[in-house]
Automatic annotation (TrEMBL), chain A:
EC identifiers of the protein: 1.17.1.4
Lineage: Bacteria, Bacillati, Actinomycetota, Actinomycetes, Actinopolysporales
SUPFAM superfamilies assigned: CO dehydrogenase molybdoprotein N-domain-like, Molybdenum cofactor-binding domain
Keyword check for Hydrolase: no
Sequence ranges assigned to domain Aldehyde oxidase/xanthine dehydrogenase a/b hammerhead in this UniProt record: 24-128
Native source species: Actinopolyspora biskrensis
Name this protein carries in UniProt: Xanthine dehydrogenase YagR molybdenum-binding subunit
Entry keywords, A to Z: Molybdenum, Oxidoreductase
SMART domains (UniProt xref): Ald_Xan_dh_C (SM01008)
UniProtKB/TrEMBL annotation, chain B:
Keywords for the protein's UniProt record, in alphabetical order: 2Fe-2S, Iron, Iron-sulfur, Metal-binding, Oxidoreductase
Domain 2Fe-2S ferredoxin-type: 3-79
UniProt name for this protein: Xanthine dehydrogenase YagT iron-sulfur-binding subunit
Keyword Chaperone among record annotations: no
UniProtKB/TrEMBL annotation, chain C:
Pfam name, any one: CO_deh_flav_C
GO MF annotation, one: FAD binding
Name listed for the protein in its UniProt record: Xanthine dehydrogenase YagS FAD-binding subunit
Source organism phylogeny: Bacteria, Bacillati, Actinomycetota, Actinomycetes, Actinopolysporales
UniProt enzyme class: oxidoreductase
Keyword annotations of the record: Oxidoreductase
InterPro entries in UniProt: CO_DH_flav_C, CO_DH_flav_C_dom_sf, Diverse_Substr_Oxidored, FAD-bd_PCMH, FAD-bd_PCMH-like_sf, FAD-bd_PCMH_sub1, FAD-bd_PCMH_sub2, Mopterin_DH_FAD-bd
Length: 694, 167, 330
């Protein structure tokens, strides 16, 4: 059903429309919105992992000049809904994890609020807590389903029998640590309460999501909650749903009506209040026949969840459909602990799950004596193994073949540990990538023809930094058959029509389809030469092909790794990603999305590790000096390429999401390359120097 | 405790009374409405707050405003002249050296300061010969820009942008 | 952060008198460590005396071939100084391996010497720490201690000194010039920092009110070679897991003189005297390097997460010695 003509607007490397404002810093993010006479809110957090607040003495804080209020469970208003425990702040003295919000100081300045926060005296009743991630029966259970809407475990054929009969077998356990989204812009909100209306300038991935969750919690008509996210400094999932600080700001603003209340979380506070990718322990068992074809696949994942709120990461889900295997068992279990609530982080499920699966695939390729690229090609399924549906398009093999050609893979000597230069051992590795092509229904867009001859396009979607503003303008121009300069796109707030969340790499597909539909209806109603003031609002029709095809993007990740033979230091001088992700809307911003995903994948491979101290229940390295993300010097040459993929089924534009697939497979490719360099197989992320010390 | 200070910010002389506890970053952002420098970590660990302080790149979150009385501050906003972007800014635009834009003003101030350091012959951790003037290859750019984190992962484009601006 | 009084010092004597006379007063230089600690609530001075405008901002040649580095010389200026680059490359390299460009532009020589440990528990007032609050216990001892000490630690504190510069200064036999109300004194840099013992809250031998005014380096030997090697988790902008500063002279295939200091391993820059002893007069061979490293590490004690530092140090020290003793053209 691809029927929007490729007249050149789609695919063009249009410069970011907000580029000039961003390079000068004049683009204003949530906390930077000009408001009159603001107050500053500083959250108070629990210093114990489980128990209750017995006494909270706020008087020393309140005695400070400039302090307006100290909110606690003793004086906070009773909320209308407590369904979401993250938002139901200050409703009881109970503490379910260390770092939970137990109060907030509101003062004239940040300095006073921070000082006052340190003066509040809290007495706790401590209860025993359990925060150590492990596979003990007493904390492990099987969830009803996992994120986003994946059903129960899968068990096809007889995996045990197939493994016993297999010519080659691999049985390995992989672990990934807690990883923290850490967008550069800390989570922040300004709450303004005026005439029973709440306005939130908020850093989020969906202004409507924020409204939908905040309004019922406050017992408000959603129409009276206005959310603006004009520019967002990244999110990668952690800004997908509102967290406690948004409610704190709203409650404080209601209490102190007339003064806007500003709250920006500190980097440290983010480690307990805005979610993280949960740690995983994954066992993968593969069986193959003498021809190097998989006969058995088992992927058993265990992830961490919080006792106060379930989050079920879907680490094993990719193995449902990635490769052929007549016998297949996919299980997902959770370990419930007194820890902060995990959430989405770029490619939840696939990022961690494909690290395990694609490392196991490398191990199996070596076991079978088949080249790792060739091994994957041999195990390419014709239809989606779980559902039996045809793929709307699946070009993994082409990605692997083209990547191998570009990377120089075909001359590779498979022998490990033999390439040494100036004290560094080098090697190369490959891994496959996949990510579902989601589209979320229900978004609306308005198109109006304005004096001056331009088209006003409105959609309440949030551009969290990916380039949606630019890509959607291109889609609108294409659909309206006008130059991009004739389109003025308005997005980011609940003042525009309802739009779905920027998550699951679904944004451009969902909102783009909506804009295409609105453009069609606009032209049908108002013709090619509309009158000034002509306006149409439309909602995208559901995709008739949904349910008839398996829809995913694919990719191949290649990495070159160097390991210092003395110190174990590991570097990644070269990466290549080749992707098949449908039609590319903007070659410039798309390349940056892939590049950014791959860079975060490198960061995941080498650095990221939230260390939880079980005695206290907190993340010990809760800042950017302790929790390393990749810096500039960690990243070498990164090449990005994509196939010209035509997918007639995914949506009217033929586009697939690209925000997440870039990270998938990178850690496996790097780990596989490190093994090729050194002969050492590491099955535990991150790949830090001590793991390669000889 | 308050103190009166005078700063020259992006060419404008500004006198204000600040709490001695206020950092230069917070004075700019919350007191003067200059929000081009960003707060990413507030502890000198990310570089988003980088400005040119008396001509040199510096983390504005780790210095008190009061200690910078009579200083000259240039932010990314002040680097652009009459709506015309600075060559480094133009190179960031041309090379798509950013996505969300939050680390970008700090990256750009850092790049401008760094290019001056190279011009002055300052070596870096990866400079082979400490006696010779450094040559600004990609490895040098990466090392010298490592104090500015970018979570969107635009490093490869940042390096091309700076390479281009340096030419 | 509690409110504080700020004063800009115009002359050293009055600054020293002010701080000496007020237990709540502190000097502030570049602020990169102190401002951080004040924000974290680790330290709460009532008064700051800003010493950055005192006349300690130059690098001067001394009669006899040494240099004097003023206490307020910024780390970036010191690393760029020609005399340091040419005659003390190990120091320039150590400075350039530390922090980031924008931090080195603020940080001073004196401040760098006095920077405090980056132990995560020390930096978090919600966890016990003997260094921050004597008597509360050491959280790192049984906690996350990957970055912690394997040499010279005590049951009260296993923190490491984070400075790169100080490791190079230790290998250069630098002397720290200190002024107090009683006058000036000279402290070998290797004696400036303390091991934790049962007083981990005392990191240096300085008394309250004493001000570092300069660091002096003796003249380098013309035939020595030196280097600084830092092993860290990120390629840049990360604290050391292990670092080695070494100054070595080779004469007729044997090591005539070696001065070695190790970073990331102890509560102070660790002068590797046992390794130096093992090297003196020995042939420049792989076996010698390894024996020297083993000699230094004989007393090393690993904690739960940092056992790797012992082989990492052994390998890195050997690699540094190999590099420094390599014959030109060989």
């Amino acid at each position: 059903m691809t029927d929007v003509s490729n007249s050149g607007k789609l695919g063009e490397p249009l410069e970011r429309l907000d580029g000039p404002a961003k390079v000068t810093g004049t683009a204003r993010y949530a906390f930077e919105q000009p408001v009159d006479d603001p107050l500053y809110l500083h959250p108070l957090q629990a210093d114990i992992a489980r128990g209750r607040v017995v006494r909270i003495d706020t008087s020393p804080a309140e005695a400070l000049s400039g302090v307006h209020t100290v909110l606690t469970h003793e004086n906070a208003e009773s909320l209308s809904s407590r369904v979401d425990v993250e938002l139901a702040v200050l409703q009881s003295p109970e503490i379910g994890y260390r770092g939970q919000v137990i109060g907030a100081v509101v003062a004239d300045t940040q300095e006073i609020a921070a000082h006052a926060a340190g003066l509040v005296e809290v007495t706790y009743e401590r209860h025993p807590h359990d925060t150590v991630f492990r596979s003990d029966d007493e904390i492990v259970y099987t969830p009803d389903g996992s994120n986003p809407m994946i059903g129960e475990d899968l068990d096809r054929g007889d995996v045990d029998e197939a493994l016993a009969a297999a010519e080659y077998a691999v049985d390995a356990t992989y672990t990934t640590p807690a990883e923290y989204n850490n967008p550069m812009e800390p989570h922040a909100t300004i709450a303004v309460w005026e005439s029973a209306e709440l306005t939130l300038y908020d850093s989020n991935q969906g202004s409507y999501t924020v409204r939908d969750m905040i309004a019922p919690t406050l017992g408000m008509d959603p129409q009276r909650v206005h959310v603006f996210a004009p520019h967002v400094g990244g999110g990668f999932g952690s800004k997908g749903v509102p967290h406690a600080h948004v409610m704190l700001a709203a409650l404080a603003a209601r209490k102190l009506e007339g003064r806007p209340v500003k709250c920006a979380l500190s980097r440290r506070q983010m480690f307990s209040l805005v979610g993280y990718r949960p740690p995983t322990r994954q066992r993968v068992r593969l069986g193959a026949d003498s021809a190097g074809r998989l006969t058995a696949t088992e992927h058993s994942a265990l992830e961490q969840t919080a006792r106060v709120k379930e989050y079920a990461e879907q680490s094993a889900s990719a193995a449902r459909n990635m490769y052929v295997s007549a016998n297949r068992r996919i299980t997902n279990e959770l370990a419930v602990l007194d820890v902060p609530v995990p959430t989405w982080m770029r490619a939840p499920g696939e990022a961690g799950g494909m690290y395990a699966l694609e490392t196991a695939m490398d191990e199996m390729a070596l076991t079978c004596g088949v080249d790792p690229v060739e091994f994957r090609v041999r195990n390419e399924p014709e239809r989606a193994p779980e559902s039996g549906l045809p793929f709307s398009s699946r070009n993994l093999v082409s990605c692997l073949r083209q990547g191998a050609e570009m990377f120089g893979w075909n001359d590779r000597d498979p022998e490990p540990g033999v390439r040494r230069e100036n004290g560094w051992l080098s090697g190369t590795g490959v891994a496959a990538a996949t990510f579902p092509s989601f589209s979320i229904p229900g978004s609306k867009a308005t198109i109006g023809y304005e004096p001056g001859g331009y088209y006003r396009v409105e959609i309440g979607a949030v551009d969290l930094g990916t380039g949606s503003r630019t890509a959607l303008s291109q889609i609108a121009a294409e659909a309206l058959e006008v130059p991009v300069e004739a389109v003025r796109l308005h997005l980011g707030s609940t003042e525009q029509p309802r739009a779905s969340i920027a998550g699951g790499s679904s944004g451009t597909a969902s909102w783009g389809s909506t804009i295409v539909q609105a453009a069609r209806e606009f032209r049908a109603e108002h013709g090619a030469e509309p009158a000034e003031g002509a306006e149409t609002t439309a909602e995208a029709a559901a995709n008739p092909a949904a349910g008839e095809y398996a829809m995913n993007a694919y990719g191949a990740q290649f990495a070159e790794v160097a390991v210092n033979a003395d110190s174990g230091e590991i570097r990644v001088p070269r990466m290549l990603g080749v992707f098949a992700a449908g039609r590319i809307v903007n070659a410039r911003t798309a390349r940056s999305q892939f590049l950014g995903g791959m860079t975060m994948g490198l960061s995941m491979a080498l650095h990221e590790h939230g260390v939880l101290d079980g005695r206290f229940g907190h993340v010990v390295n809760h800042d950017l000096a302790g929790y390393h993300v990749a810096g500039n010097a960690d990243v070498g040459s990164v090449e990005v390429s994509w196939l010209d993929e035509h997918d007639p089924h995914v949506n009217p534009m033929g586009i697939k999401g690209i925000g997440e697939i870039g990270i998938v497979g990178v850690a496996a490719a790097i780990g596989n390359a490190a093994r090729h360099a050194t002969g050492i197989r590491v099955r535990e992320l991150p790949l830090t120097p001590e793991k390669f010390l000889i | 405790m308050d103190a009166e200070i005078t700063l020259r910010v992006d060419g404008q002389r500004r006198t204000l009374s600040v709490d001695t506890r206020t950092t230069l970053l917070d004075a700019l952002r919350e007191r003067m409405g200059v929000t081009s420098p960003k707060k990413g970590c507030d502890h000198g660990q990310c570089g988003a707050c980088t400005v040119l302080l008396d001509g040199r790149r510096a983390t504005s979150c780790l210095t008190f405003a009061v200690a910078n009385d009579d200083s000259e501050v240039v932010t990314a906003e002040g680097l652009a002249e009459d709506e015309r972007p600075h060559p480094v800014q133009q190179a960031f635009l041309d090379n798509d050296g950013f996505q969300c834009g939050y680390c970008t003003p700090g990256q750009i101030c850092s790049a401008v300061g760094m290019l001056d350091e190279v011009k002055a012959g300052w070596p870096s951790h990866v400079t082979e010969d400490l006696d010779e003037p450094p040559e600004l290859d990609d490895e040098e750019i990466r090392e010298r820009m490592s104090g500015n984190l970018c979570r969107c992962g635009a490093y490869a484009n940042i390096v091309s942008a700076i390479r281009e601006a340096a030419e | 952060m509690k409110p504080f009084d700020y004063q800009r010092a115009d002359d050293a004597d009055s600054a020293i008198a002010t701080v000496s006379g007020d237990p709540e007063a502190r000097y502030i230089g570049g602020g990169t460590n102190l401002v951080d600690h004040m924000k974290l609530g680790i330290t709460e001075p009532g008064k700051l005396v800003d010493i950055t405008r005192l006349p300690y901002d130059s690098v001067e040649a001394l009669p006899g071939g040494g240099v004097r580095i003023g206490a307020t010389v910024r780390n970036s200026d010191l690393a760029a100084s020609h005399v340091i680059r040419q005659r003390y490359p190990v120091l320039a390299q150590a400075l350039l391996a530390g922090a980031s460009g924008q931090l080195r532009n603020l940080a001073t020589t004196g401040g760098n010497l006095l920077q405090r440990t980056r132990c995560s528990y020390f930096q978090d007032t919600s966890t016990p720490c003997n260094k921050r609050e004597p008597g509360t216990g050491c959280s790192a001892l049984e906690g996350w201690n990957r970055y912690h000490a394997v040499l010279g630690a005590s049951e009260h504190c296993v923190a490491t000194n984070p400075s790169d510069m100080a490791v190079a200064l230790a290998a250069l036999d630098a002397t720290v010039l200190v002024r107090g109300q009683e006058g000036q004194r000279r402290i070998p840099v290797t004696e400036l920092h303390r091991l934790p013992g049962d007083e981990p809250e005392r990191e240096t031998v300085l008394e309250h009110g004493e001000l570092i005014t300069a660091v002096e380096l003796p003249a380098p030997s013309e035939s020595s070679r030196s280097t600084y090697r830092k092993v860290r988790d990120r390629a840049s902008y990360a604290f050391a897991l292990v670092s080695v500063a070494a100054v070595v002279e080779v004469s007729e295939g044997a090591i005539s003189h070696a001065r070695i200091a190790l970073g990331g391993l102890a509560h102070k820059p660790w002068r590797a005297t046992a390794a130096e002893e093992a090297l003196r007069g020995a042939p420049a061979t792989e076996e010698t390097f390894r024996n020297a490293a083993e000699a230094e590490l004989a007393e090393a004690r690993a904690l739960r997460d940092n056992a790797f530092k012992i082989p990492m140090t052994r390998n890195t020290l050997s690699a540094v010695l190999r590099e420094l003793t390599r014959q030109e053209g060989a």
